[in-house]
Amino acid sequence: GESVGLHLPTLSVQEGDNSIINCAYSNSASDYFIWYKQESGKGPQFIIDIRSNMDKRQGQRVTVLLNKTVKHLSLQIAATQPGDSAVYFCAENRAAGNKLTFGGGTRVLVKP
Amino acid sequence: DAGVIQSPRHEVTEMGQEVTLRCKPISGHNSLFWYRQTMMRGLELLIYFNNNVPIDDSGMPEDRFSAKMPNASFSTLKIQPSEPRDSAVYFCASSFTSTGSRETQYFGPGTRLLVL
Questions:
Q1: Which of A93, A100, A106, A107 to mutate to test the interface with B (most CBs of B within 10 A)?
Q2: pLDDT tens track of chain A, all 112 residues?
Q3: Residue A76: which of A11, A3, A9 has the closest Cα?
């Protein structure tokens, strides 16, 4: 079936380095994508979103890239900090309705 | 501003008991979503409402699960009778949705349910 998936379950990164989290999706009808961050014991927290008419969007220390040709989404975190340690989820919103389908998540561990 | 509010934050109950989870969405939001998160299955959408009306309940596991939204500021998810396999973290999320738009969903802190 169609789904959103992640390539790497765990990413270890040195503090100060950049992080890249990848996500593959298979539904070409998806037109809206969101990255969420989930810290232990908390609900998913919105980080950044991107619509299908864009291929790049920047926020504060984060950049999301969308490659519709290969159905690939990535989240780049610049100068990773200890507070960035969390599980990151990508989610797609398909054209019909307002449902989000979540990927399996990637755990980011920031080493001091 | 208050975010999505969920209660209780933790619930421990025995198999067969009724469990009621509560959610207050962000004021002004017109869509409400109930999710379940487990290690095995990740985040799953159970049901969502738009303007207090259930739109899609295809994710509700079985008849033991029911959800209501009597008004724009309150929703419940009920499990009766509860089973150990229902143990999970249940999240409520809300968003403002208009025709043709795609809007961010904001999540509550979740209710951690343990059924013994």
A1: A100
A2: 334 443 448 999 999 999 999 999 888 888 899 999 999 999 999 999 999 999 999 999 999 999 999 999 999 999 999 999 999 999 998 766 678 888 889 999 999 8
A3: A11
